[in-house]
Amino acid sequence: MTALLEVSGVSVSFDGFKAINNLSLNIAEGELHAIIGPNGAGKTTFMDIVTGKTKPDSGRVLWGYPSVSLLSLSESAIAQAGVGRKFQRPTVFEAQSVRDNLLMALNKKRSPLSVLFYRFTADDFAKIEAMAKEISLTGVLDRRAGELSHGQKQWLEIGMLLLQEPRLLLVDEPAAGMTLAERERTTDILKRAAKSRAVIVVEHDMEFVRRLECKVSVLHEGSVLAEGSLSKVTADPRVIEVYLGRS
Amino acid sequence: MPSIRSVGPVSIYRSTIIFVALVLTFAILVTLASHAIGFGILSTSFIKTLGKTLCLCLIAIAMDVVWGYCGILSLGHFAFFGLGGYMIGMWLMFARTKDIVLKSIANNALPATPQELRDAIGTQIFGVVGGARIPWIWHFADSLTAQLALAVLVPGLLALVFGWLAFRSRVTGVYLSILTQAMTLALSLYLFQNDSGLRGNNGLSGLQNIPGLDLVSQDVISLWFFWASALALIAGYLFFAWLLNGKFGKIVRAIRDDETRVRFLGYPVETYKLFVFVLTAVVAAIAGVLYYPQAGIINPAQVAPIASIYLAVWVAIGGRGRLYGAVIGAAFVSLVSSWFTGGQVPDVPLGFYTIHWVEWWQVVLGFGFVLVTLYAPNGLGGLVDVFVRKETSA
Ligand SMILES: Nc1ncnc2c1ncn2[C@@H]1O[C@H](COP(=O)(O)OP(=O)(O)O)[C@@H](O)[C@H]1O
Ligand SMILES: [Mg+2]
Questions:
Q1: Atom in ligand 1 nearest the alpha carbon of residue A42
Q2: Domain range list for chain A
Q3: A3–chain B nearest CA distance, Å
Q4: Which of A79, A92, A112 sits opposite B271 (nearest CB)?
Q5: pTM value?
Q6: Does any CB of chain B come closer than 8 Å to the CB of residue A115?
Q7: Which of A34, A61, A59 has its CA nearest to residue A50?
Q8: What does the pLDDT look like over B117-140, one tens digit per residue?
Q9: ipTM
Q10: Inter-chain CB proximity A79 and B4 less than 8 Å
Q11: Partner residues linked to B363 by β-bridges
Q12: What is the CATH topology of the domain spanning A1-82+171-178+199-247?
């Protein structure tokens, strides 16, 4: 089976420091995949490379079939190609309402002229309502996004991503700063999202990853240290040494 | 249960209706008070000042769209305003000079050849900068249609090329503001040169005399331009309100608040910025086209970088992110400003020092700007927000 996303031999360094070192990783269509690793392992930088924010010094990033290289595309073109990204800090448009945030994310044409003459349809609003239910924000659609709690902002951002209808979703530490109940809800949302698309989740929290019940890659110093089920990688002595041993 | 909302700008829909009604009422009242049609309470020169102020309000809403809504602090929009003025000024000056020359040679025994006619016009217009040849940039100056088209095309193209280079290289924030100032400075330095083809620091003058309308008095013409300016302001306001009210407005505001995030939503941010930049530049140019026939003269000093900075000050004082704020800021500050600098305000003798308002007005304005920025970030428009809201909740 060919991969939806194929990252091979990618390296990038910042001022001589190798943040990503000959990293290779394949993601299949519809796969749910977790990436764990200590702080500074390069997890966020990996997402930066896939989404076009950072250009690697070497290596290939191929997407879809027939495959195209993501390296020559701009951030917005990559997003349009079907890669959605959730940032580590919740980033929503705080000055605008929750509904407007979701409306902007809807999977429609993105060029200025088509947006200028676009009129929202009843179908669009129905989609927003359905998504609001999914992410537990039904009661706050008309609030400014800035007034939401931290956890609600995280969900709003995930909701926006899902409305983009990406084929691959990159999620950076979605559970950070959430209460236990919020975490459980987030796991549910992600697992359901992964039924119709590929999802890569970066997470620190072992319990959270365990609940996702998916393939895990351990990142260390910019490359993959171990790969497999969570129980398999956590039994790997190298993993225990660099990561689990410290916590 | 009432939902909690912060007191933000009045909704675009409501504010637009109120705005259009107010401007129309104002225009009718001014007409009734004019010399030409009404009771003769307002002098013709004051009507020109009001008409010019409406043009300044139009460029101010363009500035608010590009800065207040899209987050691009352009300090160059007065350059587009001035270019629009120069383009229409070329026709006004050329066509009128041609009329004068034709009249003066009408009784000659031999009819003038086209070359003689051109030479005579050239001497009239360019004698002041020591030339007689008509520069190539005046090629279309005989045609009103062509110059009107150029008044939109030249500033529009400049904005397109400049914006494309700047946005494509992801220049943002204060660096972009500096670049726009550099562009404005370059333009005004070019215009100051005698061989710019636009009469150097003399600029273009006599623009209040509209070719073909010799028999219409300035009282009447001033009213026509006043109305044209009022209607242009209304049209501009309606257009921008429509633009900002829909999905486009949401994207533009999102770009202002977090352009990186907008990119990851898949929107080509640079294209949006370029679109808004060029569009507002064109509106600024249209404002200039209407302004200068009322001002009568355009010279490079008016395109100087400082003018564009003032524009930002008006919008800041009026309150960014609300079109009516920009209008209030531009009208209030420019009118008060011309009052202070016009020498009508009595000086204040302090014994040891006399405050001459002509000079000290700048200081007052500067302090006003700082105070508004620090203590009233919503500007004068913020007062309107509170007022309108009280009205509705009462
Ligand atoms: N833009 C950058 N400039 C310099 N160093 C960076 C940059 N981005 C990341 N790094 C460095 O690269 C390493 C990996 O960072 P990151 O990918 O954020 O780690 P993680 O998300 O796994 O905690 C860190 O040491 C970080 O300091
Ligand atoms: Mg990180």
A1: 17
A2: 1-82+171-178+199-247, 89-165
A3: 22
A4: A112
A5: 0.93
A6: yes
A7: A61
A8: 899 999 999 988 888 889 999 999
A9: 0.91
A10: no
A11: none
A12: Rossmann fold (3.40.50)
